Amino acid sequence: MKVVKFGGSSLADGGQFKKVTDIILMDPERKIIVVSAPGKRYDGDTKTTDLLIQLADRVTEQGDEQDAFRAVMARFETIVTELKLPAEVLTDIEEHLARLIETYRDDAERLYDGLKASGENQNAKLMAAYLQQRGEKASYVSPDEAGMYVTDDPGNAQILPESYEAMKTLRDREGILVIPGFFGYSKTGHIVTFPRGGSDISGSIVAAGVEASEYENFTDVDSVYSVNPALVETPYEMKEVTYREMRELAYSGFSVFHDEALLPVVKKRVPIVVKNTNHPQAEGTRIMAERTPDDMPVLGIASDKGFVSINLTKYLMNREVGFGRHLLEIFEAEEVSFEHTPSGIDNMSVIIREHQLENGKEERIIQRIQSELKVEDVQIERNLALVMVVGEGMARTVGVASKAATALAEAAVNIKMINQGSSETSMMFGVDAAKADLAVQSLYYAFFEKQKTVQ
Amino acid sequence: MKVVKFGGSSLADGGQFKKVTDIILMDPERKIIVVSAPGKRYDGDTKTTDLLIQLADRVTEQGDEQDAFRAVMARFETIVTELKLPAEVLTDIEEHLARLIETYRDDAERLYDGLKASGENQNAKLMAAYLQQRGEKASYVSPDEAGMYVTDDPGNAQILPESYEAMKTLRDREGILVIPGFFGYSKTGHIVTFPRGGSDISGSIVAAGVEASEYENFTDVDSVYSVNPALVETPYEMKEVTYREMRELAYSGFSVFHDEALLPVVKKRVPIVVKNTNHPQAEGTRIMAERTPDDMPVLGIASDKGFVSINLTKYLMNREVGFGRHLLEIFEAEEVSFEHTPSGIDNMSVIIREHQLENGKEERIIQRIQSELKVEDVQIERNLALVMVVGEGMARTVGVASKAATALAEAAVNIKMINQGSSETSMMFGVDAAKADLAVQSLYYAFFEKQKTVQ
């Protein structure tokens, strides 16, 4: 049994619905379908979710909500018309939205979550209706019926552990099941949406819950690329990538698959296959526990900005048992998590995401470091990007650091920090944020241009 | 006023005493002399301190101590004879040693500390007597008279803060003062020796206490080399090196100057000048707060063995606020200090000196990591060497990492870990201990052979 998730662009209009249906029917293992809200049909189009947010904005501003309401309905209407679905489908959607607005008019948080979720929710109903019209035994399964129980934290739902057990029963249901992505239900019966990565998370949870043989994730690219395709001309297409590699890449700037979405399937070792709705015959990218060994030391290069480094100096620091613990405790007290802590003999840096330092946290942290650790110097270095070179093959290969550092030197990128842990699956370079793209390009050229010609 | 310390080889026999005296008299600023015990006169000779330890061994074993006693006396007798010092000097030494043995016969710790210290102690008396014979106003000053108060921790004395204030009065004393290195007195009146670096520590403390204009450290090399001279043919001689550079090098394997010996002068910014007793006209190496900028990014390359890395893996580790703090707390509870903590996304390593893991500490640490941090995997990697590339110029130079990593790759040395903090004064490479020398040699060749031809 496969769980198949279709992204927003895969379900943007009636034509895409037909493609998706063909894909579903091509493989009888494709039993559970998780859908996103209708996405962009063309450059400059607005996603349904954004239309729904605009509608929520109007309602909370107590402005004229009719135009915004009609804009949302127009998206669904186009699909219903294109697919020649019965008119009552559309009436249902309209009543559903109106009811949501009335119920939550004075509760902005719930209103936003409810409206945002309805893009996926209604789209799942349309998908189920269209499959039925095509003669398939198919049913819409709401997340609460599916067992998708989440914490009651609007916009940031976390799955509750009992959900996985509850979802097992989905295996026994007949026909094709269509489940909306992006949200679950709290124990108090409220709709609560997931953080970024929304529908990918839903699909991953369902795939883990039913212990699927595969979690297929259909989007609009043939594969996951080794590097941000906006930065190089013909990016290398990854055929296989391990969870670990994907996680390092996702963490450091790859937007393909958020790490929240990886976690559920990693635990159950369900392979993810990223495929293209518009080109389903392409092999796609398999994300799995172990991949076939090859001779490529590096599989991907990612970068992310928005980091700062808090650098401190104290003579004989490393003789003070408890210094590092005390330092990290100061960050912990402010609920700030750190990325890396590179160190010299008498200095140590704590690299963190800058957005964590709001509301006076920066001042309090610096002040405590000065007064409690009695450092000689503490400074904050901003505009830092972390560039990550990732590949399970790095551990087996001598010279990766050399090639990477040489590529950066030749591009005149100053390396501010380097960190390579014992796993040897990744190597981190801290560089000036303004040089991050150049760093990625030069590293890509060094590791991939030659690899490609060899194959 | 200069404080001048002479090492063991500089005072190994009467001939060396004469050289040392000439050096002292060459510069009227050389007012305070700190001396080591007589060292080796030739390859295969035994240092006086080792003879004293053998004597202590005999006494504690309750064996025949006469031969060992005579061997110690023979060393002093040779010097006394060569310098034509009065015979009572020798009688004094003999009585002193005999009294020490009688006093501490049943207290092994005190016996060892007392006998070990007497090498320096008696040598200082000889030096003072010889200076007097040469017509100088000179006096022996015992460490308690000098104000060298230390903790009562045999073999591991730590200076007490009030010592610095007490030593200030030495400035007002007339003539040349000769102080034995290597030990101080506890508040209970016992002789207590310093840890490794012994007499260098004493000299540094005195130099800081009297706020000397320079702390001259006479040994048997023309300068401090940029690399272990046993590893390369014509090692680069450092003219100037900052405290910070010296400390990084000393910490990572340079035996010239231990970091315990650096600390006192660093605080008072007294420059250290390392010079050669056998070639005093050589300029030597100045260790100071700031050095003259030059175009050499790297000033020294050091390595040290005996490290292990405790490597742990846990999915989404970096999301857990408090994970790093908790990990370091486990090491702290066992009083184990760490060197570096390189990390990936889901893994973290703690590099420590292996000798710290004795007495079940290793098992307890691993066990607590497993049970309290619920990691997926924890492993201990042994036989690790840390190779340190050091230079204040690195921060100003693009391409240092590239050159270093390329040198290691070309020598087929696999880099297990890399760490470069924000100070950019040093870069650490973790390599297999068996490859440490090769790593140092290849790095030296890369950074120095070309630098040398340019000059």
UniProtKB/TrEMBL annotation, chains A, B:
It is an enzyme of class 2 (transferase). GO terms for cellular component: cytosol. It catalyses: L-aspartate + ATP = 4-phospho-L-aspartate + ADP. PROSITE patterns: ACT, ASPARTOKINASE. Keywords: Amino-acid biosynthesis, ATP-binding, Diaminopimelate biosynthesis, Kinase, Lysine biosynthesis, Nucleotide-binding, Transferase. Its EC number is 2.7.2.4. GO terms for molecular function: aspartate kinase activity; ATP binding. Gene3D superfamilies: Acetylglutamate kinase-like, Aspartokinase, catalytic domain, VC0802-like. One of its GO terms (biological process) is homoserine biosynthetic process. It comes from the Bacteria. Substrate binds at residues 49, 120. Residues 389-455 form the ACT domain. Pathway: Amino-acid biosynthesis; L-methionine biosynthesis via de novo pathway; L-homoserine from L-aspartate: step 1/3; Amino-acid biosynthesis; L-threonine biosynthesis; L-threonine from L-aspartate: step 1/5; Amino-acid biosynthesis; L-lysine biosynthesis via DAP pathway; (S)-tetrahydrodipicolinate from L-aspartate: step 1/4. ATP binds at residues 5-8, 219-220, 225. Belongs to the aspartokinase family. NCBIfam families: asp_kinases, PRK09034.1. Catalyzes the phosphorylation of the beta-carboxyl group of aspartic acid with ATP to yield 4-phospho-L-aspartate, which is involved in the branched biosynthetic pathway leading to the biosynthesis of amino acids threonine, isoleucine and methionine. This is Aspartokinase.
